[in-house]
Write a structure and sequence with these properties.
Blueprint lengths: L18 H9 L3 H14 L7 H8 L3 H13 L3 E3 L6 E3 L2 H6 L2 H22 L3 E7 L2 E8 L14 E2 L5 H8 L3 H10 L11 H14 L2 E4 L7 E8 L5 E9 L11 H25 L1
Antiparallel strand pairs: 1-2, 3-4, 3-8, 4-5, 6-7, 7-8
Length: 281
């Protein structure tokens, strides 16, 4: 008569894992790590966070071990407390880690050929922006092949609240990410202030039409056209922006409407690419 093996602890209910992963789990168990990951996975499904008591109940573990693990996750900034201190939610640290060099490099590698094709068709420059620590990081930039263009340098950080890229990222963020992005924002040099009412109005318009087109808040004579690069959950992974300038000499190039459509197609292509890549993964 064989004695049944004890049921493994530290695994969230209703989680199905492939047999090879289960076998590996039995050979290389790390209970403390499992507890931390279980908490992160649980909080990832809770946009408004959970109290410590709710986490203990969901995890089916003792209050003391959950408390210790939560405190470590807070110290390491993977989890944050709300201002009243009674609820816990994921911070953006995991998001930031996911957007460090390897994933960002893959996104850039996929984007550059599409951006280059846009620049040749539109005869304009374009750049790709991603969220970075409260503002926007320019991850990729392509100049116009004609030599006449306005460009933003790759690696530059631009404002979250006064740029087309920033407004697109906010408009296509989920509720939890939106709140954290605003909380992490710190004004950059020269930032143009915006009221809360005006910001909400702008973001609502973006969601209705799917893009943003307006005079630049940083430079005269520049019209910013920006589209989101969307993931499969319809949140913005990045933005694609063209700082459009109109030539007034005898050269006849694509007009504003043509450039807008070229940029729309480029963003759509990259959104589909990102969606398919995630499905395959």
């Amino acid at each position: 008569m064989t004695t049944p093996e004890p049921k493994p602890r530290g695994r969230r209910p209703k989680t199905e894992e492939p047999q090879d992963l289960l076998a590996a789990d039995e050979r290389y168990r790390a209970p403390a790590l499992d507890k931390g990951l279980d908490i992160l996975e649980l909080l990832a499904t809770q946009p408004h966070g959970l109290t410590r008591a709710e986490i203990v109940k969901e995890m089916d573990r003792s209050a003391s071990e959950i408390y210790r693990m939560l405190e470590r996750l807070v110290v390491r900034q993977y989890v944050m407390r709300n201002p009243s201190g009674d609820r816990y939610a994921l911070s953006l640290k995991l998001f930031a880690l996911a957007n460090m060099h390897p994933p960002l490099s893959r996104l850039i590698n996929q984007a550059l050929p599409v951006m280059d094709d846009f620049a040749r068709k539109a005869e304009q420059s374009c750049h790709m922006g991603v969220y970075d620590r409260g503002n926007v990081l320019i991850g990729a930039q392509i100049n116009s092949p004609r030599g006449w263009s306005f460009s933003v340098q790759r690696g530059a950080r631009v404002g979250l609240l006064d740029t087309a890229s920033g407004h697109l990222l906010l408009a296509y963020a989920d509720e939890g990410s939106y709140t954290r992005m605003l909380a992490e924002h710190t004004p950059l040099d020269g930032e143009v202030p915006i009221t809360e009412a005006k910001l909400k109005e702008t973001l609502s318009t973006i969601r209705q039409v799917g893009y943003l087109e307006r005079d630049s808040a940083q430079s005269f004579g520049v019209v910013d056209i920006s589209f989101p690069i969307l993931g499969p959950d319809n949140t913005a992974l990045a933005t694609l922006t063209c700082p459009y300038i109109r030539r007034i000499d005898r050269h006849i190039g694509p007009n504003l409407a043509d450039v807008r459509e070229h940029l729309r197609e480029a963003a759509k292509t990259l959104s589909l690419t990102q969606g398919m890549a995630r499905e395959v993964a």
